[in-house]
Write a structure and sequence with these properties.
The complex is a heterodimer of chains A (314) and B (531).
Chain A: H1 3-33, H2 41-58, H3 66-91, H4 96-119, E1 134-135, H5 146-150, E2 151-152, H6 154-172, H7 174-184, H8 186-191, H9 196-220, H10 234-244, H11 249-272, H12 278-296
Antiparallel strand pairs in A: 1-2
Chain B: E1 5-16, E2 19-30, E3 34-39, H1 45-52, E4 60-65, E5 68-69, H2 75-80, E6 83-86, H3 98-108, E7 128-129, E8 132-133, H4 143-157, H5 172-185, E9 190-194, H6 202-217, E10 221-226, H7 229-235, E11 238-243, E12 246-252, H8 258-266, E13 284-294, E14 300-310, E15 313-318, H9 325-332, E16 340-345, H10 353-358, E17 361-364, H11 368-372, H12 379-383, H13 387-393, E18 394-395, E19 398-399, H14 401-414, H15 431-443, E20 449-453, H16 461-476, E21 480-484, H17 488-494, E22 497-502, E23 505-508, H18 516-523
Parallel strand pairs in B: 3-10, 3-11, 6-9, 9-10, 15-21, 15-22, 17-20, 20-21
Antiparallel strand pairs in B: 1-2, 1-4, 4-5, 7-8, 11-12, 13-14, 13-16, 18-19, 22-23
The chains are: A mainly alpha (314), B alpha/beta (531).
Chain lengths: 314, 531
């Protein structure tokens, strides 16, 4: 294997690894900008992963349509989980960290129970129709890295498209301006007549749907199976990406690529067959996560009202 | 002279449970009038305004605006009816620019002419006059439109402010200007100003009053809420006084003198605490030399400050909020790291708050609710927070409940804390009584040096007097007091020697005691008030 081939391989793997992180992180950027810290993102991804696979499984008769149904169901299941979060966190003004943790723990158990109920304890996981790689016409023919950059499944491109969309929404629409204001000083926008609870709920639902789709990517692309606990902390890494990306969609994109590289290297290093226990490589993305958050971020300026329930009577 | 009433309140009442905050109040506002509402803290001024602004709904009574009877369900309804409010605590988003803050308000209300504000309805360019957008698109946020709109507004009303800077970089006076612009941006005919001068220096107040006069000339009406008699007498056309939720006085400005108004506010004649002539000793207590302290953004919040206090004197530091007073106090107390300089207390240089307190230092922090007391703790537990009390009551670190309650009850009686039960949580107490907890805790160990930061902020006149008496008592016992306050009157009344703090620097100003103008100049950063 020559060096170019290795780099191409790592680049392609980085992009694939970054995609689910990016999807979840973009949703989380919007939620946190509105002032809600959604720690349940890991659980929402896991639920999305399960239901994405389930959706595709039950429509497998239409192999072209099935993955799309799966992706839709994944997003919907994430959205519904977020609705549960919203009920406790916004309606009842509970503590967002506690609720988010509860949702993640709930999802861990719930997905396993549902999976075993539906498919039994089979030795090998169920395989379902999934998103196949395709070559972007022309672009993938670009010499050197064209193939690595433009030969992917469709969700990768959709995820990348979301970056400018979220950016445009936050910085170039009135609603986005209100979302940003909501995370800084909710009382201020309520005195000019905006509905803080509604705004936050909408952002949270978006975050849930994005996390669900991110989870759906895991079970509907690349390796189209569901295994319990398969998100393996990706939701928490998405949280780190939001902070590392300073609550900005474009910077979060960069951060997602960095952590995608972590996952890519984890796999490549294992494949090199070095005489090192593989657990060391598994740790890689998470060590990266710690190092980045501890050392290189500088003082992150979170939205001022982040995580604080809004009580209009105060 | 018969002018039409644009706002009328008829027998307005608002009860929160058993507490009647606003009791059967009648009030009227004419076009182009500045109407002051005077009252102590808790007199119901803010509740009354919240009723007008739609933040609360009245339990009984009627609000008539432009001759129509209306109930506002939310501020949104009030704003559409032409009411704007500048809150005491600004409703600005610090991390957004001025233009963005303005746009937030304008976009919400730019579709007044019958069309509902739906997100899809307005994607084409808004109508423009001379290149200035008269409203903003409800979908797109266009930075340049917002900036031009803000510029146009500030030109129209003569309120200069840079639209593209972040609000958090503005001075308090400018922030207030943005708040007023925000209200004018949606064409408010009635402006409610809640304690607007509390945060301004004397010079800024003058400028602010000019703005109010201009708005008045534009036939807008202003409700001016304040507890500062002097300002009310200067700016208003009519005065309404509230006491315990009831309207007790109403009349043209000038009909009643300041003492008369004070009597209406308090319901009794007031005995001013007089500053007695006082001889300070030459025993040095606090000696700060060349102190520089970093602020929260790594700027120099306190810059090369030197100050001495002696036994038997009160040294006052005046200044507008946010000029380094808090950082100075915290640095002396060892709560904040210092860049350079030294703090000496009674000839020693203790390090760490615990050791500083052991030298005999008491500290009344500026915000009793976040720094002075723990609101969910009982009165007794709050009283015991001081290290000096712990040591007496604890055996090997275990506090005897009996001894604690005995000590607490004694302090509660001495300092007249009400309700006088040791186990009531502190949040159930009024501001004045909360402050008494802090006073009892900090003064009862007989500190050699007492540092008091804004000790009467938010207190009514009686509670404030109680605090002042205690500070004087400290002085008379030949202790040393450092009083840091944003209330110029308080500093003037209390202190034997006087400093002004501005942009981190400290300037001796005892000589200018009787010259408010000079003090004002010092407070706004002039170093030589005689220019």
């Amino acid at each position: 294997m020559d060096i170019i081939a290795i780099l191409e391989d790592i680049l392609a793997a980085t992009i694939r690894g970054a995609t689910p992180l990016l999807l979840a992180a973009l949703g989380e950027v919007v939620a946190q900008r509105a002032g809600v810290i959604n720690i349940g993102i890991e659980g929402m991804m896991l639920i999305g992963a399960l239901f994405g696979m389930v959706g595709s499984f039950y429509t497998a008769g239409l192999p072209f349509l099935a993955p799309w149904v799966g992706l839709f169901v994944a997003g919907l299941s994430g959205l519904l989980t977020a609705a549960l979060f919203a009920f406790f966190a916004i309606r009842l003004r509970g503590d967002q960290v506690v609720i988010g943790t509860a949702i993640t723990l709930l999802a861990l158990g719930f997905t396993e129970v549902v999976y075993v109920r539906l498919f039994g304890k089979t030795g090998s996981p169920q395989s379902v129709p999934y998103f196949k790689q395709f070559d972007m016409p022309f672009l993938s023919q670009i010499p050197l890295f064209g193939d690595a950059l433009f030969t992917h499944n469709i969700i990768v491109f959709i995820a990348f498209l979301f970056v400018p969309c979220v950016y445009f929404f936050l910085y170039h629409t009135q609603l986005g301006l209100r979302v940003r204001a909501c995370g800084e000083h909710p009382k201020a926008i309520s005195t000019v007549g905006s509905n803080v609870s509604l705004l936050r709920t909408m952002c949270l639902l978006f975050a849930g749907a994005m996390a669900g789709i991110g989870g759906g990517y895991l079970s509907l692309a690349d390796v189209p199976i569901f295994t319990p606990g398969m998100t393996a902390g990706r939701g928490f890494i998405a949280l780190a990406i939001v902070i590392f990306g300073k609550w900005h969609p474009v910077k979060a994109f960069g951060a997602a690529l960095l952590f995608g590289l972590g996952f890519a290297l984890e796999n490549r290093f294992q494949a090199f067959g070095w005489d090192v226990q593989y657990q060391w490589f598994l740790m890689l993305p998470f060590v990266l996560c710690l190092a980045v958050l501890a050392g290189f971020v500088g003082k992150a300026e979170a939205p001022l009202a982040l995580g604080k329930p809004y009580d209009p009577s105060e | 002279m018969e002018t039409e009433n644009i706002l009328e309140l008829q027998k307005l009442t608002k009860a929160f449970g058993d507490l009647v905050a606003v009791d059967n109040v009648d009030f009227e506002l004419q076009a182009g009038e500045i109407h002051a509402i005077l009252g102590e803290n808790g007199a119901g001024k803010s509740t009354l305004m919240n009723l007008i602004y739609g933040l609360h709904q009245p339990s009984d009574g009627n609000i008539r605006i432009f001759g129509e009877s209306k109930i506002f369900k939310s501020p949104r309804d009030a704003i559409t009816s032409g009411i704007g409010m500048v809150h005491q605590h600004f409703m600005l988003i610090e991390n957004l620019t001025v233009a963005e803050n303005i746009a937030l308000t304008v976009a919400k209300f730019s579709s007044k002419d019958g069309k509902t504000a739906s997100i899809e309805s307005d994607t084409e360019s808004p109508p423009e006059e001379n290149g200035i957008p008269s409203k903003l698109s409800t979908f797109r946020y266009k930075k340049n439109d917002a900036i031009r709109l803000t510029e146009a507004l500030s030109q129209k009303f003569g309120l200069a402010v840079d639209p593209s800077v972040l609000v958090r970089t503005l001075s308090v006076g400018l922030k207030q200007r943005v708040e007023i612009l925000k209200a004018l941006a949606v064409d408010a005919r009635i402006l409610i100003l809640d304690e607007p001068t509390a945060v301004l220096s004397p010079q800024e107040v003058t400028g602010f009053f000019k703005i109010l006069r201009a708005l008045q000339a534009d036939n807008r009406s202003i409700i001016f809420i304040s507890h500062k008699m002097k300002e009310v007498l200067e700016i208003s056309d009519r005065i309404t006084v509230l006491r315990h939720g009831k309207k007790v006085y109403h009349g043209k400005t000038g009909e009643l003198s300041a003492p008369g108004l004070a009597r209406e506010m308090l319901g009794e004649e007031l005995s001013e605490v007089e500053r007695k002539e006082n001889k300070a000793t030459t025993d040095l207590v606090l000696n700060v030399s060349g102190l520089t302290v970093p602020g929260s953004r790594n700027e120099n919040a306190v810059l090369d400050v030197s100050i001495q206090t002696y036994r038997g004197e009160i040294v006052g530091i005046a200044g507008v909020d946010g000029n380094g007073q808090r950082e100075l106090a915290e640095a002396i107390m060892g709560l904040r790291p210092i860049t350079s300089g030294a703090v000496e207390i009674l000839g020693r240089q203790p390090s760490g708050t615990k050791n500083i307190r052991k030298c005999g230092v008491g500290y009344i922090p500026e915000d009793r609710r976040t720094m002075g007391i723990i609101t969910s703790f009982s009165i007794a537990d709050n009283l015991m927070l001081n290290i000096a009390h712990f040591e007496h009551l604890a055996k090997r670190g275990v506090i005897s409940q009996k001894a604690k309650n005995r000590a607490a009850t004694q302090l509660i009686n001495t300092y007249d804390i009400r309700p006088s039960s040791a186990n009531i949580p502190a949040f159930a107490l009024s501001g004045g009584n909360q402050q008494k907890i802090v006073l009892a805790r900090e003064i009862s160990p007989q500190p050699e040096l007492l540092i008091a930061v804004n000790p009467t902020r938010g207190l009514d006149i009686n509670a404030a007097q109680y605090v002042h008496q205690n500070l004087f008592a400290q002085r008379d016992q030949k202790k040393s007091v450092l009083l840091i306050s944003t209330e110029l009157d308080e500093v003037l009344q209390m202190s034997d020697r006087l400093y002004v703090m501005s942009r981190g620097k400290l300037i001796e100003a005892t000589a200018h005691r009787d010259n408010i103008e000079a003090l004002g100049l010092l407070m706004t950063g002039e170093t030589d008030p005689d220019v």
